[in-house]
Amino acid sequence: CIRNIDIGYTIVHGSGGYDSDFSDEDGQGESSEKKKREEEILQKPFEKGRHSQVAHRSFHTSEIDREEARNRRAHLISLNAFERHKKFVSDYILYYGGQMADFKRSAAKDKTDYDVIRENHHFLWREEDEEEMTWEKDLAKKYYDKLFKEYCIADLSRYKENKVSMLSLNLIEVVSQFQCGHKRCDNNDGLKSWEVNFAYVEQGEKRNALVKLRLCPECSFKLNYHHK
Questions:
Q1: Which of 13, 51, 135, 168 is the Cys-Cys partner for 147 at CB 3.0 to 4.6 Å?
Q2: What region, left, alpha or beta, does residue 8 occupy, with left being phi > 0 and alpha being psi -120 to 50 degrees?
Q3: Predicted confidence band at 78 (pLDDT cuts at 50, 70, 90)?
Q4: What is the pLDDT of residues 177-186, one digit of tens each?
Q5: What is the pLDDT of residues 142-177, one digit of tens each?
């Protein structure tokens, strides 16, 4: 028994051939896009494209500039502050001209810690002196806290003019309480303790304070010269 089998082909009139019912005559663009997508899916991440393009000159230049800036930044980070400063100064002179003497810093207003303490020192600190503390006053106050304030050292060289200067002891001079408290006397025999009213002028203000001195008989006479 012979049966007719429909194999899905139809005769195209006017062409004299066969064509598939599932063909898409208008889908040529879609098939090319589909093929491109399949190629992208099958392409491995480490593979390069089939048709590599040469980078533009501007892109090449920007990459070189970026690499040079990265190397320059790494070089500056490796320098310390002083070497970095010298490099910036030399680069400035190289591009804009000038001399190193133009960049020399003036040391006329330089101050050491001793200068700051001397300007802000108080013989005795009061509560009102500690108001509105600056870093200079804070430095002087820290120095004052380290002083030995039980006894003082006196300079009696001008005792006949009734001018006596007093200063507190630092830690190195604490031994002075076991010898005469006169700045220019090393006698340690017959020492006596005296408590006297010390009047002084500090930062344009008159102040008074009771201070203790440890003096030998000769220096005790100088201390009480005008009193006697």
A1: 168
A2: left
A3: very high
A4: 577 888 888 8
A5: 988 888 777 888 888 898 888 888 887 664 455 545
Report the 10 Å Cβ neighbour count for 209.
Answer: 14
Q: How far apart are the first and last CA of the chain?
A: 162
For the chain, where are the E strands, in sequence order? 9-12, 17-20, 148-158, 163-169, 192-202, 205-215
How many C-beta atoms surround the C-beta of residue 61 within 10 A? 10
Element (H, E) at 86: helix 81-96
User: What is the torsion angle, in degrees rounded to the nearest 10, for the CA atoms of residue 131, residue 135, residue 138 and residue 143?
Assistant: -150
Please identify which residue in the block is written with the tokens 């006698």.
Answer: 187
> Which of 85, 81, 91 has its CA nearest to residue 105?
85
User: Looking at the whole model, is its pTM more than 0.85?
Assistant: no
